[in-house]
Every structure is written in structure tokens, then in C-alpha cells.
Design brief:
The chain is an alpha/beta fold and 320 residues long. 44% of the residues lie in helices and 18% in strands. It has helices at residues 19-27, 47-57, 72-80, 101-110, 136-142, 155-160, 173-179, 190-198, 230-245, 249-268, 272-284, 290-300, 306-317; strands at 6-12, 34-40, 62-65, 87-92, 96-97, 116-126, 132-135, 170-172, 202-214. Helix 8 (190-198) runs parallel beside helix 9 and helix 11 (272-284) runs antiparallel to helix 12 (290-300). 40% of the residues are buried.
């Protein structure tokens, strides 16, 4: 029986130091049926040169070197238009796969039904030199950020809690087809993908550390709560979409919890415009409390609170 094809979309932007290790980790997979799409989003470092060398060594690589930077969401969609696989992995070329990652995730999918749209796993975080920093779920449990790893219908859980390491996700193609790919108006993709897809599909957890996720200064995710963060505006837009996806008071309660969290973080990270927008969402949901008004008032004073927030994060969770 033929193995289902898996397409790995390898997105690169200024990953010259890491792209060879990343792509070779895909090439070393024990699973035989893999389409590898390498998409460089107009890198300004030596990434294109390294990718050309890899293409010469491994002709099976399907390479596109874009001439204009489009951002992660649009670049992914353009690559996805060329994908042929039944399953899809959005793979950043600063990360690394374990050799059996794809085989184990496909086997997990084959043991479920078609309502399962995403299989995600545990992960290990590494620094720029490849030194282990921490393990994903061990860290979340140790700091009491989660009490369990939710599976199945995870819509409410994903509204309230960050707990999935998005680079570990293998997605059924029908998930991306149903969503028309990533929303190109957003600066990052995972929260929107989680919220929209979990309303339609089930999620399954494979409890193995199958990916190394590299933490790099100035990476896309590192700017989530930076001052003047464009990601917070994207988060606001996802929350705005989620209003129409809520089916009952429990769903709306979960969404309000998320919006209040983002309001606090916006205030503490010196993002007054984003804080105001989250306040408007609470008003639309008829859920603005006196405490919420207090955060909005604090935000309006535009006090430099981001340094205090940063030091709290270091003390509470460690430097990264």
C-alpha cells in the first residue's frame, strides 16, 4: 500500500547559518514519501547561496528564491500552491527534525479518523549554537502554565492558553484548504490557524520530542510583546474573527479571557493602540469590567512599563 505523500514547506528568511542543518534533517527522514519545497523569502544574507548548493547536492529539492520579501503568511501560501501532499508541515529553516518525526506523525494520523486535522508533538528548544535550553511541556508544567495537554475539540483551550509548539504541527491538507491557507493580512499565522481550524477539526497530541526549535534573537516570535508590536494588531484581528466562531456562553467566556490577557500585555508592553482595540472588543462583547477600565486608563498614560514586564518575565520564567 502506497504511503501518503507529505509536503514539507521549508520557509527561509536570513537563516544562512542554519538552513543546511534544517533541510538535511528533512532529507534524513526515515519516511520515504516526502515532497520538499524550499522557499527563500528574499533573504539578505547568504541563505540563497547555501540553498543553491543544497539544490546541486540534492536535486529532489524544489527551490524558489523569491526576489521580494512577502512575509511568512504570503510566502507559505505561495509555496502551498505547489504542494502535492496529503499532509503538510510548515517548517522553518532554523529548526531541526528528529529522523523519525514524519514517520511517527503520519502513523499517528493513520490511527485516527478524518476529523483529526492536526497532530502536534513535544519539542526541545535550542540556542543558536544548538545547545539545549529547555523542553516545551516540561517547562509549561513546571511553571504551572498548563495542567494538561488538551486534545480533541480544543477551540476553547486554544483561545485561552498557549500550549502548542506550532513548529511541531503536521496538518491534514484539508485543514488548509478549508481555511484558504494563511490569512495574508496577519503578521503571524499560528493563533489564527488554531482558532479557525479547531472549530472544524480535532487535534491529536503525540507525546514525543520530535523537533528542535531554535530560539534566535529578533526572530518573528520574539517580537510578540515588543513595544509597537505589529503582532498584537494581528492578535486583535484574530480575536475579532473569533467572535463569530463562538457558539455559546462558554466559548464567549474563553474569548473574553483571552482578550483581557492581551489587554494587560498590551498595556505592560507599551502598546496603547492595541490596548484600546482590545478594550473595544470587550465593549462589543459587553464584558468590560472596572478592572479592564483600569488597565485602559493605565495604558492611556503611556507609562514606560515594558522594562518592568521584561524583568518580571525573566524572574518568573527565566531569560527565554
Amino acid at each position: 500500500m502506497a504511503k501518503p505523500l507529505v509536503t514539507v514547506i521549508c520557509l527561509c528568511y536570513n537563516h544562512g547559518r542554519f538552513v543546511r542543518e534544517a533541510i538535511e534533517s528533512v532529507l534524513r527522514q526515515t519516511y520515504p514519501a516526502i515532497q520538499i519545497l524550499v522557499w527563500d523569502d528574499a533573504s539578505t544574507d547568504n541563505s540563497p547561496a547555501v540553498i543553491r548548493e543544497l539544490q546541486d547536492e540534492y536535486p529532489r529539492l524544489e527551490v524558489t528564491l523569491a526576489t521580494e520579501n512577502e512575509g511568512n503568511c504570503k510566502a507559505f501560501n505561495q509555496a502551498y500552491a505547489r504542494a502535492k501532499g496529503e499532509f503538510i508541515i510548515d517548517f522553518s529553516t532554523d529548526d531541526v527534525m528528529q529522523e523519525q518525526s514524519i514517520e511517527k506523525q503520519v502513523n499517528c494520523f493513520l490511527a485516527t479518523d478524518d476529523n483529526t486535522g492536526v497532530v502536534f508533538t513535544d519539542a526541545t528548544y535550542i540556542d543558536e549554537q544548538g545547545v539545549v535550553i529547555r523542553h516545551h511541556y516540561e517547562h509549561l508544567f513546571r511553571h504551572r502554565l498548563i495542567t494538561d495537554v488538551a486534545t480533541g475539540d480544543v477551540f476553547r483551550k486554544l483561545l485561552t492558553t498557549y500550549y502548542i509548539a506550532s513548529p511541531t504541527m503536521m496538518m491534514r491538507r484539508t485543514v488548509l484548504d478549508a481555511l484558504n491557507g494563511y490569512d495574508e493580512q496577519l503578521s503571524y499565522e499560528d493563533f489564527d490557524l488554531w482558532v479557525r481550524s479547531s472549530r472544524i477539526f480535532r487535534y491529536t497530541f503525540l507525546n514525543e520530542r520530535l523537533y528542535f526549535i531554535r530560539l534566535i534573537n529578533h526572530s518573528l516570535s520574539s517580537g510578540q510583546y515588543a513595544p509597537a508590536s505589529r503582532h498584537l494588531i494581528s492578535t486583535y484581528r484574530v480575536c475579532q474573527k473569533a467572535i463569530a466562531l463562538c457558539r455559546d456562553s462558554g466559548d464567549r467566556g474563553a474569548l473574553v479571557q483571552r482578550i483581557r490577557y492581551e489587554l494587560r500585555q498590551s498595556t505592560l508592553s507599551d502598546n496603547a493602540i492595541a490596548a484600546k482595540k482590545f478594550g473595544q472588543l470587550l465593549y462589543a462583547l459587553r464584558s468590560k469590567s472596572l478592572v479592564d477600565r483600569g488597565w485602559l486608563l493605565l495604558s492611556a498614560f503611556r507609562l514606560p512599563l515594558s522594562r518592568i514586564r521584561k524583568w518580571y518575565q525573566v524572574i518568573r520564567f527565566g531569560s527565554r
